[in-house]
Amino acid sequence: MKSTCALLLVLPLFVCISAVQYAPAQAAARTDVYHVHFAKATLGKGADEGDFLKQQSPDAPMKGHYIVLRHQSGEDWDYAVIEHSGTSATVKAAGTPAPASARDLNAWHTDTFVNGPAWPEFAKAMGLDDPGKSTGSVYIVSVFRAAPGHRDHLEQSLSQSARGTSGNVLLQHLEGGPWHFLTIARYDSWEDFAKGEKADVADTLKPGGGWVGVRNYSSYHNDTIADRIAP
């Protein structure tokens, strides 16, 4: 994934230690850093922007450790690129300038560093351990900003997997966008997605999680349905 940056920043390994009363088990497993890139293509350049983002930068720290998702319904971005950086991330003043042919493809973008599980766990959850068997997967990408004093409550609520999913990832903000958590839920197919959504309706008002949990503990969130275009 190509992006241009103008500062030197080294992000050390970060592990969240939440209050014991609410801390979910997943928090201890967030050992690695990921770069989250939301991108909106300029008018008429949606396909070209996607083709560009599918190509990892030549100096990517972890070759092949990335996923590119394409918007189908939801937020205003066209693509979400999530790239593994290992246990730390370095942003160089020289950046990674886009080639001249790609400079006018992007209308806007945001960049956020997050921590999350080690790559094997992330890859398995997202169906990247065997991409050939998960080409029909559907992904729900959601970002959340916790209400004051409720970050641990929100984290616990988000740690509960939705019905019918084949993989779930919870990522926590380190630097960048104005949100605290990003979740990605993967369904094997559109049919499984529909079944899961239908089943979840019955649990809409279930205490401590799901629909109620998000609204009790989050001051802002959005959800986007996407498919995968790389790898």
Number of helices: 5
Main β-sheet, spatial strand arrangement: 2-4-3-10-7-9-8-6
Return the domain count.
Answer: 1
Biggest sheet character:
8 strands, antiparallel, barrel
Structural shape: globular
> What is the fold-level CATH name, i.e. the topology?
Alpha-Beta Plaits
Order of helices and strands: EEHEEEEHEHEEHHE
Mean pLDDT over the full residue set: 87
Radius of gyration: 17 Å
Identify low-pLDDT runs.
3-28
Structural class of the helices, strands and pairings? alpha+beta
Structure overview:
- This protein is α+β, with helices and mostly antiparallel strands.
- It has a single domain, classed as Alpha-Beta Plaits, CATH 3.30.70.100.
- It is 19% helix and 35% strand.
- The strands form 2 sheets. Strands 2-4-3-10-7-9-8-6 form an 8-stranded antiparallel barrel, surrounded by 5 helices. Strands 1-5 form a two-stranded antiparallel sheet.
- A hairpin with a 5-residue loop joins strand 3 and strand 4.
- Helix 3 packs antiparallel against helix 5.
- The longest helix has 12 residues.
- The chain is globular, with a radius of gyration of 17 Å.
- The two termini are 12 Å apart.
- The N terminus is likely disordered.
